């Protein structure tokens, strides 16, 4: 065996332990990421599945993610298991010395084929990320990783040294696939989702949060069968690249043990150093045509991505004032706003609906928020048609008095519709023709006193119904047919009791908010029949709690802050309130409540009402 081969073997052996420890770390992080994603999907409620756009969240998608978590765990266990030393015989060494052209051709074609498939999917994923990610720096970093890999790794295929063209190629491929498939999502995307999902769901009420992270869930999780296949290929590539690297390092180290005894340590180090630092001298470009085509294709892809990154940061126009969050899709020469805030007290003096133009804001609008705009008759629903990705529409402090149905239908993509603080006295007509998959419906802060029985047939898709700060004292019995309702907010109304029928109805209900009402009786039957439900009864007139349910107050599954019960006892689980019109659940929940804004002790609802002040 010549010195160059022995030098390659020595280099691989020297890198063995760092590579294996990095492989262990990658497997652990992959398991953490995949288990967390699987848990999110399995624990997601039906409404969360729709809002996040997760494809088959209770079957195929968690099965795929869970399977790859198991495969990583098995691979990790195999790595940590002690290996018996194997004696390497002469024929194995001869295998390394056989027809170099045939060996290199077979090796290169395999690596290039895998890398071409992987790069294609990575580029498509990077393009999708540019559509969804409002943190342009993250989308840029993701694209740059692919660009650097395309521009750099193909050069290594032309080396005549096995360490360079095999070990380094496998190492860099493994690193790139891990960073793109696991690294970005684990460090930048997943933590906020876990916090909102398992710690404080009020985080999800923020329109900024929805725009930022519900967009990203459409990148992190599969939204279709094709996306599930693409995710599977990327996860498989990350795992296979890592396993091939580990297997290569172990196998070659075993060869070294059996074949390098003839050279001195100094000679091996010298040969290895030359192989590593003089890579340029070992490059040979007279190779097979497939290798040259692969090289040119990778260079073109890398250069195209790099030029796009430079264009985005140097040339692409920024969105006008009013766009709170924007994206930077590849090779688009106009603003692409995702969250548009039209505050008519902040310089938007034109007719509000006339400000909606795809030429100004692009067609990828995700969230549209009108603030303090004179819209007594609402907006023409037809003006929303050019925005096929519109997720939410919010009219806040709009002086809305009536909103008639004019024959135009809502965009099918609309999942959130809110009217906050209006002059409505009746449910407007357009709320009888809701989008087919609407999840969040809000009628907060109005003069509505009565809800028609016929509304139920039009609100069957709704999972979060927010009817706080109105003049309601009851809801129709037909509301018991809202089987998908998960959250019901009837706070700051005129209720004196919670209907006993709710205890056996509303099977999906997990959150009931009845704060700031005149309720005097503790809903014992309701809490006994729905032991997992969170109930807010803050600032009501309840003065006693059955002993069997006092533990629920202590654990704050039932909130009684500001009630006579908390005022007269030192019971665990009681907290102070900033005002009798503001519950602790409302304060700082990322939504402006007038009852938490006007009292000075509440500090402007913890900053949630800042949008109502001209900026």
From TrEMBL:
<dbReference type="InterPro" id="IPR001611">
    <property type="entry name" value="Leu-rich_rpt"/>
</dbReference>
<keyword id="KW-0732">Signal</keyword>
<dbReference type="Pfam" id="PF13855">
    <property type="entry name" value="LRR_8"/>
</dbReference>
<dbReference type="InterPro" id="IPR050328">
    <property type="entry name" value="Dev_Immune_Receptor"/>
</dbReference>
<keyword id="KW-0677">Repeat</keyword>
<feature type="transmembrane region" description="Helical">
    <location>
        <begin position="293"/>
        <end position="314"/>
    </location>
</feature>
<keyword id="KW-0472">Membrane</keyword>
<keyword id="KW-0433">Leucine-rich repeat</keyword>
<feature type="transmembrane region" description="Helical">
    <location>
        <begin position="20"/>
        <end position="42"/>
    </location>
</feature>
<dbReference type="InterPro" id="IPR032675">
    <property type="entry name" value="LRR_dom_sf"/>
</dbReference>
<dbReference type="InterPro" id="IPR003591">
    <property type="entry name" value="Leu-rich_rpt_typical-subtyp"/>
</dbReference>
<feature type="transmembrane region" description="Helical">
    <location>
        <begin position="62"/>
        <end position="80"/>
    </location>
</feature>
<feature type="transmembrane region" description="Helical">
    <location>
        <begin position="104"/>
        <end position="124"/>
    </location>
</feature>
<keyword id="KW-1133">Transmembrane helix</keyword>
<keyword id="KW-0812">Transmembrane</keyword>
<feature type="transmembrane region" description="Helical">
    <location>
        <begin position="136"/>
        <end position="158"/>
    </location>
</feature>
<feature type="transmembrane region" description="Helical">
    <location>
        <begin position="219"/>
        <end position="242"/>
    </location>
</feature>
<feature type="transmembrane region" description="Helical">
    <location>
        <begin position="170"/>
        <end position="190"/>
    </location>
</feature>
<protein>
    <recommendedName>
        <fullName>LNR domain-containing protein</fullName>
    </recommendedName>
</protein>
């Amino acid at each position: 065996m010549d010195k160059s081969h022995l030098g390659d073997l020595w280099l691989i052996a020297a890198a063995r332990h760092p590579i294996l420890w990095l492989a262990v770390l990658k497997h652990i992080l992959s398991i953490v990421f995949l288990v967390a994603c699987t848990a999110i999907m399995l624990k997601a409620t039906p409404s969360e599945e729709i809002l996040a756009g997760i494809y088959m969240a209770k079957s195929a998608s968690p099965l795929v993610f869970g399977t790859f978590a198991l495969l990583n765990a098995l691979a990790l266990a195999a790595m940590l298991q002690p290996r018996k030393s194997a004696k390497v015989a002469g024929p194995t060494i001869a295998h390394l010395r056989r027809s170099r052209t045939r060996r290199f051709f077979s090796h290169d074609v395999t690596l290039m084929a895998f890398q071409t498939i992987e790069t294609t999917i990575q580029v498509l994923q990077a393009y999708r990320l540019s559509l969804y990610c409002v943190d342009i720096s993250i989308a840029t970093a993701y694209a740059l990783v692919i660009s650097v890999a395309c521009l750099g790794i193909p050069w290594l295929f032309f080396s005549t040294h096995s360490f360079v063209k095999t070990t380094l190629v496998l190492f860099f491929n493994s690193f790139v696939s891990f960073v793109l498939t696991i690294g970005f999502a684990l460090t930048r995307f997943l933590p906020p989702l876990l916090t909102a999902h398992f710690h404080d769901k009020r985080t999800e009420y923020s329109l900024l949060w929805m725009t930022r992270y519900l967009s990203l869930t459409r990148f992190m999780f599969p939204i279709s069968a094709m996306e599930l296949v693409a995710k599977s290929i990327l996860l498989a590539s990350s795992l296979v690249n890592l396993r091939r690297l580990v297997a290569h390092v172990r196998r070659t180290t075993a060869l070294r043990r059996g074949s390098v005894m003839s050279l001195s340590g100094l000679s091996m180090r010298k040969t290895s150093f030359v192989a590593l630092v003089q890579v340029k001298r070992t490059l040979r470009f007279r190779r097979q045509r497939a290798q040259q085509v692969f090289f040119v294709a990778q260079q073109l892809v890398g250069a195209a991505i790099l030029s796009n990154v430079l264009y985005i940061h140097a040339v692409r126009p920024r969105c006008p004032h009013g766009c709170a969050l924007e994206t930077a899709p590849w090779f688009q020469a106009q603003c692409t706003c995702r969250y548009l805030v039209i505050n008519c007290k902040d310089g938007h003096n034109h007719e509000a609906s006339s400000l909606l133009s795809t030429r100004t804001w692009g067609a990828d609008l995700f969230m549209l928020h009108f603030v303090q705009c004179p819209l007594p008759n609402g907006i023409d629903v037809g003006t929303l048609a050019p925005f096929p990705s519109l997720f939410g529409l919010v009219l806040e402090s709009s002086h809305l008095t009536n909103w008639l149905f004019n024959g135009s239908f809502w965009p099918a993509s609309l999942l959130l519709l809110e009217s906050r603080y209006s002059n409505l006295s009746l449910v407007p007509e357009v709320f009888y023709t809701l989008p087919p998959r609407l999840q969040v419906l809000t009628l907060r802060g109005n003069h509505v006193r009565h809800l028609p029985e016929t509304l139920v047939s039009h609100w069957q898709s709704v999972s979060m119904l927010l009817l706080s700060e109105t003049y309601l004292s009851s809801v129709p019995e037909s509301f018991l047919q809202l089987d998908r309702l998960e959250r019901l907010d009837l706070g700051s109304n005129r209720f004196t009791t919670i209907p006993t029928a709710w205890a056996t109805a509303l099977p999906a209900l997990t959150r009931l908010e009845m704060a700031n009402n005149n309720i005097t009786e503790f809903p014992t039957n309701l809490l006994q029949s729905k032991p997992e439900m969170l109930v807010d009864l803050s600032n009501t007139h309840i003065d006693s709690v059955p002993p069997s349910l006092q533990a629920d107050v202590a654990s704050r599954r039932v909130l009684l802050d500001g009630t006579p019960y908390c005022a007269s006892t030192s019971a665990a689980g009681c907290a102070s309130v900033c005002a009798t019109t503001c519950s602790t659940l409302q304060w700082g929940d990322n939504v402006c409540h007038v009852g938490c804004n006007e009292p000075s002790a509440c500090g402007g609802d913890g900053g949630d009402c800042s949008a109502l002040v001209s900026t």
